[in-house]
TrEMBL record:
This is Regulator of protease activity HflC (Stomatin/prohibitin superfamily). One of its GO terms (biological process) is proteolysis. Residues 70-238 form the Band domain. It is found in: Membrane. The chain crosses the membrane at residues 21-42, 54-75. It comes from Novosphingobium hassiacum. Keywords: Hydrolase, Membrane, Protease, Transmembrane, Transmembrane helix. It is a single-pass membrane protein. GO terms for molecular function: peptidase activity.
Length: 302
């Protein structure tokens, strides 16, 4: 059973407005008619019966002029105006240009253009508990003006807070780097991490009517206090990985060489000579320096 205190989400609707150019023409007509009535009354010979009509004309003419003039407002491209009447939401106008609405209605302008935010560098503990520094870039825009204006207090501040929360969540969900376990890491799987960050941001910002178009990590590094130690660890892991690959290749090459020598009958090797050849080949293939050949003029046992 849902809580009765839960706030219902607002939803953007289209407000009733009209072109401001049409109302501008009407405003000019009212001004001309009012001015003509005043000039005509002043230049003619009015009677007592004409006075009430004149007074009504000069009263309602300016009042109508002010009411029409108060209803004008301007909307720039990629901008919207939320229309409210006495605190009640009446819809959103997204038509740019000179617009007009009833003068007793309020207009709250809001930008629907794309915004670019680069978050601050945050210190987060990754999945292994190592402190790292992480930051991201987010491109976002307002997709529902009603939610952005009425469901959160300040939608821009809400975006900044949720970006920080999402970055911390992603940073603690994966290790910075991991060679041994072949896991998804922050450093090696950028596309997957960025896609998951965008999905989480959209889920967090839907309350405010915000859509994230693009996001990605802009900074990722170990915290300064462990950067040196982790660099040495990365170097050691890289050396071990390279050595493992080198040994695997050397073993396969030695096996291939012994098999071909036996199949083609080039030389007959007993167990001791085979072991010696394997040792020599492994030294040549795995050594970091070029091998210096030693010519044996005798036999293996001399």
């Amino acid at each position: 059973m849902s809580d009765s205190r839960t706030q219902a989400a607002s939803q953007e609707t289209t407000a009733w407005t009209t072109s401001g150019y049409l109302m501008l023409g009407l405003l000019i007509v009212v001004f001309v008619l009012t001015a003509a009535r005043i000039l005509g009354f002043a230049s003619g010979n009015p009677t007592d019966a004409d006075v009430p009509g004149f007074l009504a004309g000069i009263f309602f003419g300016p009042v109508l002029f002010v009411l029409i003039a108060k209803g004008f407002y301007m909307i720039q491209p990629n901008q919207a105006a939320a229309i409210t009447m006495f605190g009640s939401y009446r819809g959103t106008d997204r038509s740019h240009g000179l617009r007009w609405v009833w003068p007793w209605m309020s207009k709250n302008r809001i930008s629907v253009r794309a915004n670019n935010v680069v978050s601050e560098k945050l210190k987060v503990n990754d999945l292994r508990g190592n402190p790292i520094e992480i930051a991201c870039n987010v491109v976002w825009r307002v997709s529902d003006t009603a939610q952005a204006l009425f469901d959160v207090d300040d939608y821009k501040a809400f975006v900044y807070v949720q970006i920080e929360s999402a970055v911390r969540s992603i940073g603690s969900r994966y290790p910075y780097d991991d060679i041994e376990h072949q896991e998804v890491t922050l450093r090696s799987h950028h596309d997957q991490i960025n896609a998951e960050l965008r999905t989480e941001l959209n889920a967090r910002l839907i309350l405010a009517g915000i859509t994230v178009d693009e996001c990605g990590l802009t900074h990722l590094a170990y915290a300064p206090e462990i950067a040196g130690a982790m660099l040495r660890r990365q170097q050691a892991e890289a050396v071990i990985s390279a050595r493992r690959k080198l040994v695997e290749g050397a073993v396969s090459m030695v096996e291939m060489a012994l098999n071909q020598l036996s199949e083609k009958g080039v030389v007959e090797l007993d167990d001791e000579r085979r072991a010696t050849m394997v040792s020599n080949l492994m030294v040549v293939l795995c050594g970091e320096r070029d091998a210096q050949p030693v010519i044996n003029a005798g036999t293996l046992y001399q």
